[in-house]
Design goal:
Blueprint: H1 2-10, H2 14-39, E1 72-74, E2 78-81, E3 89-98, H3 104-118, H4 128-147, E4 151-161
Antiparallel strand pairs: 1-3, 2-3, 3-4
Helix pairs in contact: 3-4
């Protein structure tokens, strides 16, 4: 009889094990829900969308940074082919930040100088981040020489190689 009692006390019944797992699962789920409810932000209120006119471009309310009042002149886009390979084209848009009042004639000279310089650059020279940094440094140096220090910054807007 002692053998029968020892077998029953050694292994709990399958029903008790399932009940214990179910209770622990419910406690864990409830705790997760409670913590989630305390930490999560409340849902955002729905707002009505404003009507947009069909001819809107999305740039109506955005102030232009490149204005002559700010001392910044946006140059016309430069599109030219590279020296090698000649079938590759580059498009570059830059803006010049002047110290004091901007000089539009000087900006046009710098535009032509950058366009002439880009025609001498090969694709291998401007590949990768290091090549782009060298190109930026070269253009900044040419602008500094051309402007005698009146241009304080050359800002690259777009740079595309095709």
């Amino acid at each position: 009889m002692e053998e029968i009692d020892s077998k029953q006390s050694k292994s709990p019944s399958l029903v008790m094990t399932i009940a214990a797992v179910a209770v622990l699962t419910l406690v864990a789920g409830g705790g997760g829900w409670l913590v989630g409810a305390l930490l999560a932000p409340p849902p955002a209120q729905k707002t009505e969308a404003a009507e947009v006119p069909p001819d809107a471009t999305g740039e109506e309310d955005i102030p232009k940074i490149a204005t002559e009042a700010n001392g910044v002149v946006q140059l016309e886009p430069i599109t030219t082919n590279l020296a090698y390979p000649a079938e590759n084209w580059v498009r570059l848009e830059v803006a010049l930040q002047f110290e004091g009042a901007p000089d539009v004639a000087l900006a046009e000279e710098i535009h032509q100088d950058i366009a002439a310089y880009l025609k001498t650059v090969s694709l291998q020279q401007i590949q990768g981040p290091r090549g782009f940094q060298y190109l930026r440094d070269d253009i900044q140096e040419r602008v500094d020489l051309r402007s005698d220090g009146r241009v304080t910054n050359v800002m690259f807007r777009t740079f595309v190689i095709q």
